Amino acid sequence: MLLRALRRATTTTAAASAAASSTLTKPPHFHLSTSRLFSANTTKANLTKAKKSKSKSDGKDRAEELQVTDTEFFVKQDEELRRRQLAEDENNPALDVGPNGRPLFTSTSSISLLSKKDACSYMKFSVEELNKVLPEGLPMGMVKEFEESSRSALLIRQSFLDLRDNFRRAVDPSLLVGSKGSKVRKQIVLDGPVSCGKSIALALLVHWAREEGWLVLYVPSGQEWTHGGFFYKNPQTGLWDTPVQAANILQDFSKYNESLLKKLKCNTLDPIPLGEGAGVGWPKGIDKMQISEDSTLYDLVQAGINNSHAAVGVLVRLRKELSDVKDIPVLIAIDQVRKLSLPHYIFFSVLDLPQGLFFLYANSLASITLIDYCCISTV
């Protein structure tokens, strides 16, 4: 009995000891739970911080957008207020006072009627009317002037009046009698620093010439003649043909001058050589375009617009036709002519202008890059 009791006690002790040992060696369950809880809390904390950071970033972006919107709104309000004030000021004659007590705005209704007394005063224009007279486009200097001043008015300078009077005397010799002015020039280059008013003076001269019934080839952006489009080396002339630019020039030339061009007959009836068209290659089965006896300059221009192979040839022929026009004065006015000479060693067929103008900007002006230019020539 005693032996059985001892064995039972030993077995119970061993079991208890084994259980205790098992309890001690097994990793505590709460440690694992705590670790998982910590990991979960950390992830949630990071997500919360990320959301808060994103929320702050979004809030900052929205605040900046609102600030920009508010700024634009106030700028527009200020501009609208300025326009209303200027409109009210125009009805107050007491405010129309310029230098030396003279009127700030001239009452002269036409550029042709401007005189020395109108120098240093402003002349009001209608933007709609300017777009009609200058359908090729307004110069950027003029557009910027209108935007910054909030009114469509331009300063009339004595230099412009001298320029206008020079070409007025060039086509009317009777005005030279008793005149003590400078020698009449049929070709003039306007030079000066950037944004000094050359483009505006050139545009005003074109405006005046068209009011007087002149036939005017006006190019407000000479850069467009040599930038973009296609360039093809002409094997016959050795020059670079630019059919896209040629067609654009013809298109612009016909916008205002359509009625005059329809009245002028073609003097040269020789066939016009065809060249490589813009993206279509050479013409097949024909190398020249015939000119009929009853063709007008308008017909000639339209042929160059509608036929890419003929665009360059028509423009070169138009140059010759313009030099033969005797019934009405012809004016060629090119802005941004300095950009035509860069690179000056490349000569383009479309730039072969009359009266030596080609050599003027290609040779004389190419070496000067700090001065801007406009070229004017009468045919």
UniProtKB/TrEMBL annotation:
GO molecular function annotation: structural constituent of ribosome
Pfam families, sorted: DAP3 (PF10236)
InterPro entries named among the record's database cross-references: Ribosomal_mS29
Subcellular location field: Mitochondrion
Keywords per UniProt: Mitochondrion, Ribonucleoprotein, Ribosomal protein, Transit peptide
Record flagged with keyword NADP: no
Coiled-coil blocks: none
Keyword Ribosomal protein: yes
GO cellular component terms attached to this protein's record: mitochondrial small ribosomal subunit
Annotated PANTHER family: MITOCHONDRIAL 28S RIBOSOMAL PROTEIN S29, SMALL RIBOSOMAL SUBUNIT PROTEIN MS29
Similarity comment: family membership: Belongs to the mitochondrion-specific ribosomal protein mS29 family.
Protein name in UniProt: Small ribosomal subunit protein mS29
Organism: Olea europaea subsp. europaea
